[in-house]
Design goal:
- With 192 residues, the chain is of the alpha/beta class.
- It has a single domain, classed as Rossmann fold (3-Layer(aba) Sandwich).
- 35% of the residues lie in helices and 26% in strands.
- It has six helices and seven strands, in the order αβαβαβαβαβαββ.
- Strands 3-2-1-4-5-7-6 form a seven-stranded mixed sheet, sandwiched between helices.
- β2, α3 and β3 form a beta-alpha-beta unit.
- The longest helix is centred in the middle third of the chain and has 22 residues.
- The protein is globular, with a radius of gyration of 15 Å.
- The relative contact order is 0.16.
- The chain binds S-adenosylmethionine.
- S-adenosylmethionine (SAM) binds next to α1, α2 and β2.
Length: 192
């Protein structure tokens, strides 16, 4: 079984827009307890790689068919040093960056929404750093006033962006997902 109900959201997002393929290298941000990791590891298969990052420790997957393609890191994605560790772990081109990061809920919607958007923007920056041309990006964000502007920024970097609320997340009605497909030309690394 899956470690979280969240697993079904990634399944549904992937069914909708085919985000992850066999042999891919995928980076999963906000990965604990590991439901998305399980789904992503199944999709990439034994020749793929999934790197999961979270503030919380992620328990190693039990399934022997998935454990080899998964690596986990504990760290804060708002810190540059965590991003550097992710870049190092990926060791080259990344095909998809997926983020289910969410803040600890304060109960005050405008604050939680602002924090969610901040995390989503951090995920976007990470995606721009890591994704190869043609790569895909999935990100969760709570609906709110600045989300359209964020969407426009993401649209500039990808062929298209679909905004959706998967069935599995309808009861948490404030969360939406961007599925950004086909990163436009990634800058060539210059080494300086
Ligand atoms: N996708 C996961 C799954 O399927 O099991 C569930 C993710 S849960 C909804 C959101 C996660 O985001 C939490 O585990 C939280 O610790 C993580 N998170 C929040 N802020 C973070 C940050 N700055 N850096 C890394 N992870 C963060």
């Amino acid at each position: 079984g899956y470690r979280s109900r969240a697993a079904y959201k990634l399944k549904q997002l992937d069914e909708l827009e085919n985000v992850i393929e066999g042999r891919d290298t995928v980076v999963d941000l906000g990965a604990a307890p590991g439901g998305w990791l399980q789904v992503a590891a199944e999709k990439v298969g034994p020749q793929g790689t999934v790197i999961g990052v979270d503030l919380q420790r992620i328990k190693e997957l039990e399934d022997p068919a998935l454990v080899d393609q998964v690596e986990t890191l504990r760290g804060d994605m708002t810190e540059e040093k965590t991003r550097e560790r992710v870049v190092e772990a990926a060791g080259g081109k990344v095909d998809a960056v997926v983020s289910d990061m969410a803040p600890n809920m304060s109960g005050e919607y405008s604050l939680d929404q602002a924090r969610s958007l901040y995390l989503a923007r951090q995920a976007f920056e990470t995606a721009l750093e890591l994704l190869d041309t043609g790569g895909n990006f999935v990100v969760k964000v709570f609906e709110g006033p600045d989300v359209d502007e964020f969407r426009a920024d993401v649209e500039e970097e990808f062929q298209y962006v679909r905004v959706t609320s998967p069935k599995a997340s309808r009861e948490e009605s404030s969360e939406i997902f961007f599925i950004a497909k086909g990163r436009l030309t990634a800058p060539v690394a210059t080494g300086d």
